[in-house]
Design goal:
disordered N terminus; transmembrane; five-stranded mixed beta sheet; EC 2.7.13.3; rod-shaped; 490 residues; alpha+beta; Heat Shock Protein 90
Length: 490
């Protein structure tokens, strides 16, 4: 009967995912499956280990005490020695249950052999059988384990039933009340055949209960693992849905930027090109005149044409940058590559001279002091943040103090780090200038638009381990101070 039960146990389905996938679940599973051997790793609980060890020791001591007392009564020296050995073994073997989660088959085999050879109980072997059924899926090993546990239980029961009435646990259970005490001999309530049948039925039930307990542990572990996988898949689905929603929003922003910003920049470039053509035509017309005033007007027309050409080139560059940002919104997986440091955003002398010359060409009065060293060994990420700080400082001065003189100081060295200092007058009086609070919460852009440049710059600088401070002094001059660590290339 037990053999048929064991061979009807369904094998544990192998997990198709890796252990890293299971760790994504919100509830930690209590088992995993080793690839290839099908063993279920079910950790042994400390509280249950203490309870099972205590019960195993008590059961072993009960059988050993009866066997030792009988050997002492009849003067059986070998039997008494065997009982003494069983006393120590019965106290030590239950501690093998601490390893029932690592090698349940070995624990079961040792306890079963000990129960067959020594006067010990079978409770430890039955507990080992439950551990084996809960953790092993090989049907042959399960059948062998069931046979070992059954043999241990049968040997323990047979040895107990063969002892005299006063030295048998089973017989004591069926002894008449008030017999076996004093001079009254012990008498059985039921015939020996009935006791044997009850013992056999109890033994079969004990083995079946051990198997069912192991199956329960296995099923519960499988259910918890399945539940953990469900939670993991739900979390993954929620993440994908959130990513999809974010991507849809990014696509909408990209479409809006393409329809508005890119269109406006295109119109600026077209109008600048038309202005350049008209100014060039006007200059050519005035050059043909002999009067001094016409020659002066022709020179101004040529300067206007050159300025229109610069506006056209800058609008074209801004249009390219707008398209790059739109592409990042539409393809976020490529944004890391697009945002990586490049030659155009590196803190080099050439890049600094280009951005400074562009600011001066736009009409900015800019005083500079540059002392940079060992830039080739500076980390590209730090260099990009520093370069963006220079750009943001120039942009902020151009937007909010277009006619004022700007001072820029840049220094970089491994000893002192990267230091960028901006200062410019605002054109306000000492009593009419904007307050400190306005500057600390925005980049000086008044109204409801903008105001994200300097706060975003401060956030980037602080993430890199630097400091970014900006505001007005007592004379209402605006200052921007950026300090970054000089992180060398690894």
């Amino acid at each position: 009967m037990l053999g048929s039960i064991m061979f009807q146990i369904p094998p544990y389905p192998h997990a198709s995912g890796s252990s890293s996938n299971q760790s994504e679940a919100r509830a930690k599973p209590i088992l995993s499956v080793r690839d290839g051997d099908g063993d279920i790793v079910l950790p042994a609980r400390r509280l249950w280990s203490v309870v099972l060890i205590a019960l195993g020791i008590v059961a072993n001591l009960a059988h050993t005490s009866f066997a030792g007392a009988l050997a002492d009564d009849i003067g059986d020296a070998p039997g008494f020695l065997l009982a003494a050995i069983a006393l120590f073994a019965g106290c030590a073997l239950p501690f093998l249950l601490l390893h029932r989660d690592r090698n349940p088959m070995l624990v079961l085999t040792v306890n079963a052999i000990a129960a067959v050879l020594l006067p010990l109980g079978s409770l430890t072997a039955l507990c080992s059988l439950s551990a084996l059924v809960a953790r092993d899926t090989d049907r042959r090993r399960l059948a062998v384990g069931t046979a070992l546990a059954s043999a241990a239980l049968a040997a323990s029961y047979v040895k107990d039933l063969l002892r005299p009435l006063g030295s048998s646990l089973w017989k004591m259970l069926f002894t008449e009340h008030d017999t076996g005490v004093g001079d009254v001999p012990a008498r059985l309530l039921s015939p020996m055949r009935t006791i044997v049948i009850i013992a056999v039925v109890w033994g079969l039930g004990s083995v079946a209960a051990s198997v069912l307990a192991g199956l329960y542990l296995r099923t519960r572990a499988i259910a918890q693992t399945a539940d953990a996988k469900v939670h993991a898949e739900r979390s993954r689905a929620d993440t994908l849905a959130s990513d999809l929603q974010i991507q849809r929003f990014a696509d909408a922003v990209a479409a809006e930027a393409h329809d508005t910003l890119a269109h406006s920049l295109s119109l600026i470039a077209v109008n600048a090109s038309a202005m350049q053509a008209q100014a060039s035509h006007l200059a050519s017309s005035l050059e043909s005149s002999d009067t001094a005033s016409d020659a002066d007007h022709a020179e101004k027309a040529r300067a206007l044409a050159e300025r229109a050409s610069q506006i056209r080139r800058q609008a074209a560059g801004a249009l390219d940058e707008a398209h790059s940002i739109i592409d990042m919104l539409r393809h976020p997986q490529e944004a890391r590559i697009m945002l990586a440091p490049s030659d155009e955003t590196a803190l080099t002398r050439e890049a600094l001279y280009d951005v400074i010359d562009a600011a001066r060409s736009a009409g900015m009065t800019l005083d500079t002091w540059i002392d940079v060293r060992d830039l080739s060994s500076l980390n590209p990420d730090i260099a990009k943040i520093a370069f963006r700080a220079v750009q943001e400082g120039l942009t902020n001065a151009r937007r909010h103090a277009p006619e004022q003189r700007v001072s820029l100081e840049i220094s970089a060295s491994p000893a002192n780090g990267v230091i960028i200092l901006f200062s410019n007058a605002t054109g306000f009086g000492t009593t009419a200038g904007p307050t400190q609070t306005v500057v600390d919460n925005a980049d000086g852009d008044h109204g409801n638009h903008g105001g994200n440049g300097l706060p975003c710059l401060r956030e980037r600088v602080e993430r890199a381990g630097g400091t970014c401070e900006y505001g007005y002094d007592a004379r209402n001059d605006f200052h921007l101070d950026v300090k970054l660590p000089f992180v060398s290339l690894r």
